[in-house]
Write a sequence for this structure.
């Protein structure tokens, strides 16, 4: 996967982000990370909410790199995979992990209930928070004008 | 250690029986018996050139182990499921280069972090079709984050998705205690163990 191919396939487009746009995404991530920790919710809902926080963190990194993933079939997969291009090797393990989570989240949202286990819901919350911190660290280093 | 010995033995069984390219062709076609493989697709999957496969494919078609069909200029190949040796060959590859050995291999580095893991659902019942996902239940402290990089590689080799449901030992035992319907159904069904065995599962369940 390269940006050239993603642009050619119309899976991504050039995009100039702003601090305001990123701050809106930060607020959304903070909300989802907080909601994913509410133990009164089902493990499925907490899992899907933490997944959404991770997806938005991926989109923040992509926006800072100057792109936006087009909203079409498979765009979550493309967003997660694209973080490998933006963040490099340290993001690979997160991209692979959240790809596994993407499929589980699809089943949760569209097919079955009681899919995520408590173990998995707790794990994704930790991983999403870690991944988000990694994205913020990267923004601070590479795009200081856009930092938190 | 026992797993190591078993893997080495499995490897030498196939190597003794089949040249490397034939092993690859048979593992791919018998592993997904409903799938029609286009020549260059199969070559890409095996990391070789189409020309290096042609002699093997012709020989396997001539012997009735594979069938082929032509669509325009393209030729497709698949396992001949009506062959009298199909099931025997499939079992041989399942035991040596198939799904379970690949999963055993990727779970091995996690050692005691995984108490027990098994395949369940249609694949465990041997009723899968070519695109069936593989459902795996895992009990232990290794999570999806630990497993995912290795899972991606296994999925590429197997050509199908592997869906893992992970439980900590405590959560699994709680679910058993609360008579969780899903776990009860999985435990009643057929399983193929890829880490530990029935006695390990019985111990966890408290039988």
């Amino acid at each position: 996967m390269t940006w050239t191919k993603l642009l050619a396939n119309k899976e991504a487009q050039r995009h100039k982000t702003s601090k305001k746009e990123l701050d809106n995404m930060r607020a959304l991530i903070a909300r989802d990370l907080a909601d994913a920790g509410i133990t009164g919710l089902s493990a499925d809902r907490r899992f899907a909410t933490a997944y959404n926080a991770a997806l938005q963190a991926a989109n923040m990194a992509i926006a800072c790199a100057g792109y936006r993933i087009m909203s079409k079939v498979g765009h979550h997969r493309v967003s997660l995979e694209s973080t490998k291009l933006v963040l490099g090797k340290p993001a690979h393990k997160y991209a692979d992990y959240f790809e596994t989570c993407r499929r589980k989240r699809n089943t949760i949202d569209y097919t079955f209930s009681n899919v995520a286990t408590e173990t998995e819901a707790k794990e994704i919350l930790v991983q999403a928070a870690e991944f988000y911190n990694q994205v913020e660290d990267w923004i601070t280093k590479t795009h200081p004008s856009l930092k938190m | 250690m026992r797993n190591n010995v078993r893997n080495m033995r499995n490897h030498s069984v196939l190597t003794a029986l089949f040249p490397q390219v034939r092993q690859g062709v048979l593992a791919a076609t018998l592993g997904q018996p409903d799938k029609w493989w286009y020549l260059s697709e199969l070559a890409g999957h095996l990391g070789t050139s189409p020309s290096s496969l042609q002699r093997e494919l012709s020989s396997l078609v001539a012997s009735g182990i594979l069938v082929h069909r032509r669509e325009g200029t393209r030729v497709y190949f698949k396992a001949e499921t009506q062959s009298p040796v199909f099931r025997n060959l499939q079992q041989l590859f399942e035991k040596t280069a198939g799904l379970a050995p690949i999963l055993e291999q990727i779970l091995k580095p996690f050692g005691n972090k995984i108490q027990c893991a098994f395949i369940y659902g249609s694949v465990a019942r041997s009723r899968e079709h070519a695109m069936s996902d593989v459902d795996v239940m895992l009990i232990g402290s290794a999570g999806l984050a630990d497993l995912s990089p290795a899972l991606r590689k296994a999925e590429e080799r197997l050509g199908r998705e592997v869906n893992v449901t992970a439980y900590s030992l405590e959560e699994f035992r709680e679910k058993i205690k609360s008579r969780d319907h899903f776990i009860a159904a999985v435990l009643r069904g057929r399983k193929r163990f890829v880490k530990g065995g029935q006695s390990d599962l019985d111990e966890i369940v408290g039988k």
User: Anything to note?
Assistant: Chain B touches chain A at residues 143-145, 147-149, 151-152, 161, 163-168, 171, 182 (CB under 8 Å). Chain B has a mean pLDDT of 86. Residues 2-17 of chain B form the longest helix (16 residues). The CA atoms of residues 60 and 66 of chain B lie 5 Å apart.
